[in-house]
Amino acid sequence: MTETLEGRTEAAAGLAVWGADTVPGAADVRATLAASGVPAALAAKDPSLWGPDAEPEARIRLGWIDTIARSRELLPQLAELRTELADLDHVVLAGMGGSSLAPEVICRTLDRPLTVLDTTDPQQVRAALADRLATTVVVVSSKSGGTVETDSQRRAYWQAFREAGFTEAETARRMVIVTDPGSSLATTGEQQGSVVILADPDVGGRYSALTAFGLVPATLAGVDVAELLDAAEALLPSLARESDNPALALGAALGAAALGAGGAPVRDKLALVEDGTGIVGIGDWAEQLIAESTGKQGRGLLPVVVEAPTAAGATGDDVLTVTIGGSLPAGAWPGGGVRPHLAVNGPLGAQFLAWEYATAIAGRVLEINPFDQPNVTESKDNTNAILAGGAPPEAPAAVDGAVELYGTDAGTVVEALAEFTAGLGDTGYLAIMAYLDRFGDAAAAQLRPLLATATGRPVTFGWGPRFLHSTGQYHKGGPQVGSFLQITGATTADLAVPAQPYTFGELQTAQAAGDRRALAERDRPVLRLHLTDRAAGLRQLRRAAEQLTQES
Ligand SMILES: O=P(O)(O)OC[C@H]1O[C@H](O)[C@H](O)[C@@H](O)[C@@H]1O
Q1: Helices 348-366 and 225-235, interaxial angle, to 10°?
Q2: Which domain holds residue 388?
């Protein structure tokens, strides 16, 4: 394989992008960007780069370019906080989307323990609350301060600490709040007497890895975050340049592939493949950045996070295969077992900044606003309406063992899946959306590679409601080519959300119904499979998916 590898490596500050020059049309796209002075303008935070409609939002969303300097000012406070809370060695992060994805990849990559709670699944919330409560510190992270999942988790932890016998003051000490200045969460945090750390308000959630949202939980979990900032800062001078600018090479290639620039076949599905060289879990972070930033106005790049370089769906006719990893030793070939179109290797801090810059560049090429998420609210509004007024009763179309089938004429799970996936066509994708416990029901994730093999099409997997803050934007705002498999599950142990008129289970059910409604309103096909017994239902789904792979 190695002797057939072509392509150049473009590098700066230890961040190397290989292969960008071989993506059809990328050189022309890059030349156009350079001729318009885009690299320097973006490095100088010019908000006009995405057109007049995007300018007001861009004006308050470009802080990620130079937030590193402001983040450094936080470091003494964070070091002090870590010492002050040294007796609390179980760090829980309650936060959704951009408020939890970066700290999760930081801690996984640097092998520091961090429990991420980004769900409303009652079983998962219960399990978290029962885990080492006496030595737990909870970081409650929300930029807006108004995210219902995070607010519910905060309420549940507050009550759990109080019921465990901690005084109000002791409970307040066990909660650290990260939010934007002036949010309702900032007020709550101050009133309850918790430490409140204010984040950079000029950075949007999915671009906030190197702000307080990434740094506070990571520091408490024991990460030396200064190293991340150093690695990102080293890349900064390259961002204004027209050459030796790997982030520009990446962005131009992503945009060119999605457009099919120069008459090349469109590659608008982006397989994100970790190459096994020391960066762990970055796919989920990049997935949110790219899907929410580009998936709108019927356009966008669909990130497809695959398990390994050899996993089903890592390659395909309309797929741009991108491997991601740590710095490679001299002479090593990128890819880790797959031949990628692009390989991005380098330290984590530089990866964050490079992908943010590349996404902003791709947004310019695709002529969309990479800083808004106009369709996320559709599902949220539906959820609120359902919570307030109740969902219309729905009877299953059929029951097969431990699985109820909705939205199909089929009588069995195998038939329903076969019929549903038969409609994917040559450009379609299947999104599996599992409103389950991502640890207790982890087996659900095995469906992704199985159905990718069975269909030969890109298949994504997301935990609900986590994905609503990530790929959920693309599902509704991106091209009309998705088919949506929703998996919901009965719960045996629901849990009240303190001082709210609903339980976690009811909230999760309303979130699933709200998103179904938003997809249906756009005529996007939805098949819902409800597991009346989660373990038995998952075994059944797995058997059905295996059967389809044998028939494919
Ligand atoms: O940090 P928060 O305000 O709680 O927001 C968490 C997430 O919520 C929304 O769904 C946005 O679409 C995401 O971009 C954001 O990261």
Answers
A1: 50
A2: 376-551
